[in-house]
Design brief:
By secondary structure, the protein is mainly α. It has five helices and no strands. The protein has a domain of about 50 residues. Helix 1 packs antiparallel against helix 2.
Length: about 100
């Protein structure tokens, strides 16, 4: 998480005081950078391991990174519903 945040921080510094259009563009670019970094990381055969602090942060926002949680969501929601939910959560978090 620290590496990703450091890589994205120039893009996100001062974002709080920017107009919505600029915020959205900066967030879009940051997500693209993160996706690319994760793709490269995983393609190299690396794994993603959560520290206790990262795990606490994920749990605080309602994300349970365990397999049963993912299975529950796959059974309850279609992929389209999951994407709509994820987008709405991101919009609410940005407000």
């Amino acid at each position: 998480m620290t590496v990703a945040v450091c890589g994205l921080s120039p893009e996100l510094m001062g974002i709080k005081n920017q107009p919505a259009m600029i915020k959205n563009r900066a967030l879009d670019r940051s997500v693209a950078y993160l996706c690319e970094a994760l793709s490269v990381w995983l393609a190299a055969g690396n794994e993603i391991n959560y520290s206790a602090q990262d795990n606490d942060m994920l749990m605080a926002i309602g994300y349970r990174p365990d397999a049963p949680s993912r299975d529950d969501n796959r059974e309850k929601f279609t992929p389209a519903q999951s994407m709509i939910y994820t987008r709405r959560r991101a919009e609410l978090a940005a407000q």
